[in-house]
Design a protein that fits this description.
This is MmcQ/YjbR family DNA-binding protein. By secondary structure, the chain is α+β, with helices and mostly antiparallel strands. It is built from three helices and six strands. The model has no long low-confidence stretch (mean pLDDT 95).
Length: 100
């Protein structure tokens, strides 16, 4: 999945806006993080712990949690992974952020 595809998907979600700068783009709802560029070839998606565990179990080749993110409600997605799963994670993050 390309960042342009993430942009198209994320900005199609009501209220989700792109911010950031080249090399560190991010998408937010009401200034609350949904997804952002992380290490090269990855994005970081803000999801609840239960959703994170479900994504890790269902798509182990797409998602992971680097040690520095274990205590945070975030999951790292490999852009070479399952595009549908990444979109699912972004939708979960968007839904969580717009409800808070």
């Amino acid at each position: 999945m390309l960042l342009d595809e993430i942009d198209t998907f994320a900005t199609s979600l009501d209220g989700c806006r792109r911010k950031g700068h080249p090399g560190r783009v991010a998408w937010y709802v009401r200034d609350r993080l949904v997804v952002r560029e992380d290490e090269p070839g990855t994005v970081l998606v803000r999801v609840g712990f239960d959703d994170r565990e479900r994504l890790l179990t269902a798509y182990p080749e797409t998602f992971g949690v680097p040690p520095r993110w274990e205590a945070h409600m975030k999951v790292q997605a490999d852009l070479d992974g399952d595009a549908g799963a990444i979109c699912e994670a972004i939708r979960l993050a968007w839904d969580m952020q717009r409800r808070d």
